[in-house]
Specification:
- This protein is of the alpha/beta class.
- It has two domains: about 80 residues, no CATH class; about 160 residues, Rossmann fold, CATH 3.40.50.
- The chain is built from eight helices and eleven strands.
- The protein has a five-stranded mixed beta sheet with strand order 2-3-1-4-5, with helices on both faces. The chain has a four-stranded parallel beta sheet with strand order 7-6-8-9. It has a two-stranded antiparallel ribbon with strand order 10-11.
Length: about 240
């Protein structure tokens, strides 16, 4: 089960209720956390809320963006939703969102994909981007040339020439090449270069951190690949 831990105004003990999120049932715990509450008292209240979630069988938790008490949740065996698989699956719309923010038309843009090994997500991104962008580079140690030949054979994809900087460099692991904008789609905290997924209005209104929320919906089949889109943080 997935839970929600929310810091809210009020007094007393944490309040628990089951809520729906795009057809998913989640257990939400609201922890009273007025602004004047001391750090130690707040930590105790967060721990009580985490204890409620853990006892209910929750293992993964959604929170608001910037939630500062993950170490308390971890002590109760709670962890955030893993966002890297979603980000890698959404590599193509992320790269296109980068080009749009730069004011670069896709048919004039250069995208480079880098990965430590060939993966299904990498190939899907390459397949989706080939018909859209001017140049597409794929760098995989020991496999880059084979993938490039496949892209040329299947889509007629043109690779960037020597010295041509990528408008968007997409890393599926550490150690990729530089670009005008770099997307790091791996690890516990992927770097989307100031982009965030666009959520359905009912989900956006919850105030949850957009990336883990979108990752959970995608994982559960409630967010289809063709409907994934991104915008700059702060934009609607």
């Amino acid at each position: 089960m997935v839970g929600i831990l929310e810091l809210a105004e009020g007094r007393g003990r944490p309040e628990t209720e089951r809520v729906g999120l795009q057809g998913l049932e989640l257990l939400r715990v609201r922890v009273p956390a007025p602004d004047k509450l001391s750090g130690k008292r707040l930590a105790r209240r967060v721990d009580r809320g985490a204890k409620v979630l853990a006892r209910a069988g929750v293992r993964r938790v959604l929170t608001a963006a910037g939630f500062p008490h993950w170490e308390i949740l971890a002590r109760r065996g709670l962890e955030p939703v893993d966002t890297a698989p979603f980000c890698q699956d959404a590599a193509a719309p992320l790269a296109l969102a980068v080009l749009a923010r730069q004011g670069t038309a896709p048919e004039r843009g250069t995208v480079c994909l880098w990965a430590p090994a060939v993966s299904a997500a990498l190939l899907r991104a390459a397949e989706a981007l080939c018909p859209r962008v001017r140049f597409l580079g794929v760098e995989v140690p020991g496999e880059g040339e084979r993938v490039a030949r496949w892209l040329w054979r299947e889509f007629g994809a043109a690779a960037p020439g020597p010295g041509l900087q990528a408008d968007a460099a997409v890393w599926f692991g550490p150690g990729g090449g530089e670009g005008r904008t770099v997307l790091r789609l791996y690890g516990p905290a992927p770097d989307l270069a100031g982009l965030a997924p666009m959520l359905p209005p009912a989900v956006a209104e919850t105030g949850l951190d957009p990336l883990p929320a979108a990752a959970l919906l995608w994982e559960a089949g409630r967010l289809q690949r063709e409907k994934i889109a991104f915008s700059s943080i702060g934009q609607t």
